[in-house]
Amino acid sequence: MTRYRVLAWDGIPAQVKVYEEGRRAVSAELPAWFVEHIDREAMRRGLYGTDAYLDQWAWSGYEERDGTAEEVVAAVVAELEAEWAEARRRWAAGEDDVSR
């Protein structure tokens, strides 16, 4: 089994890190929209550049799935992109509230 976890800012994912036994960790950042969304939300809340902003970053717990590290990181990134597709669509349409 391969383990993975997700780095997120207040629930908005930014990076996936995958651990396969006997290998170095493999990680992938999510597309730029996610970091831009994090920054927009932090600015909207007045947290950008503050300790409170930093406090919002957290790793998820470890989860397991079958596959190589490369397969797992690609699958998790694709799943997160699909999960957030509606929020991205709303943002592109100019809506203010683009939470999931």
Write a structural description.
It is a single chain. It contains four helices and five strands; from the N terminus they run βββααββαα. With 100 residues, the chain is α+β, with helices and mostly antiparallel strands. The chain has one domain. Strands 1, 2, 3, 4 and 5 form a five-stranded antiparallel β-sheet that branches. β1 and β2 form a beta hairpin. It is globular.
SSE arrangement:
Blueprint: E1 2-9, E2 12-19, E3 26-29, H1 32-44, H2 51-55, E4 57-59, E5 63-65, H3 69-83, H4 85-92
Antiparallel strand pairs: 1-2, 1-4, 1-5, 2-3
What is the count of β-strands?
5
| Share of residues in strands | 25-35%
Give helix and strand order, one letter per element, not per position.
EEEHHEEHH
Helix content estimate:
40-55%
Q: Specify the overall morphology.
A: globular
Note the main sheet: 5 strands, antiparallel
What would a concise description of this structure say?
This protein is α+β, with helices and mostly antiparallel strands.
